[in-house]
Amino acid sequence: MALQNKKSLGQHWLKDPDMLAAIADAAALTPDDTVLEIGPGLGTLTSRLLARAGRVTAVEYDADLARKLPGQFPGKQLTVVHEDILQFDLSQLPTGYIVVANVPYYITSKIVQKLLTAENKPRRTVLLVQKEVAERIAAKPGAMSLLGVSAQLYAEAKRGPVVPRQFFVPPPKVDSQVVVLETRAQPLVSPADEKDFFRVVRAGFVAKRKKLRSALAAGLALDKTEVETMLQHAGISPDWRAEDVSIAQWLAIMQEWRAR
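and the corresponding structure tokens:
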């Protein structure tokens, strides 16, 4: 198939066979697994997934690619769906499915949110994203981001191989990296607490370079002295920034905010 990309869809084709195999290997597939592949494109990764898993459901937004893909794998356990992944009904997949996706930056956060907050969550998610985004998703305290908190609330995150930009056609402007999300049996916050948790966390990250005393005072409409007391009770320095705070510490801040 000719390598014709559509810039509006953020299409960059990964062709390196070793990197394609590494992504498929990161999913740790068995013949009993069902894979949801997001954005199969030309099918170069699809072929590796079909060789490892029992069934692949490939959701492709590009109508031309979705039409051509089934003909590349006759007789294989492949279902191709022409649909926007953000509209795709995950409940039609069997429980314990695994996601493998090469997704453009502009919808990465929305895809992660959809997958990890769905009623039928994937058991494991393997994403090929911009390297900077992989770093944010799997960040540790000291370099945390709102995306990292949002993802790690529902899954354990670890970074995989870096994929240099020259391995793509056409080359993007930045390198990419694999990130693996292992979905937690239970999220680190209860559904009843999610709204308050994210209200506090977002307040901290709105002005992430500000110290917590200033960021939370502005974001939660509190006096700085009240915020300092709240943080001290939670065992957190008011001089920290949002990037320094762990999920457990955000939970403690939320509890102090509620109890003030």
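(Above: one complete record from the training split.) Residues 7-183 form a domain with the Rossmann fold fold (CATH 3.40.50.150).
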